[in-house]
Amino acid sequence: MRALDILAKLWGKDHPNYADGLMSLGLLYEKMGNQDQAEKHYLQALEIRGRVLNDRHPSYIDTLNHLAALYEKRGDAVSAEKYRGRSGGVTS
After folding, report:
1. pLDDT tens digit string along 39-64?
2. Which of 41, 53, 84, 92 has the fewest Cβ atoms nearer than 10 Å?
């Protein structure tokens, strides 16, 4: 988490670079099998990216797709489709 603290000091918590750090941690947690922490970090990144970028930005769509894939792994087809639908079917 120290890396996020550094990013927050450098860029602030409402910056795309901070969201990138959240995504990186989410990916790490997912690879380690900690889906709850991955989801938490993906959702935080999605919120920031939606606010400071827009819902058509590739980084925002990438986050939606990561969330959809995570929910698919969990067997939660309803949530997976919700996030896939929001991406407009665009894959990153």
Report:
1. 999 999 999 999 999 999 999 999 99
2. 92
Residue 91, domain member (yes or no): no
The number of residues making up the chain comes to: 92
17 Rama sector, left if φ>0, alpha if ψ -120 to 50, beta otherwise: alpha
Domain total in the chain: 1
Q: According to DSSP H, which parts of the chain are helical?
A: 2-11, 16-31, 35-52, 58-74, 77-86
pTM exceeds 0.85, yes or no: yes
Nearest to 42 by CA among 15, 56, 23, 29: 23
List the domain range (segments joined by +) for residue 21.
Answer: 2-86
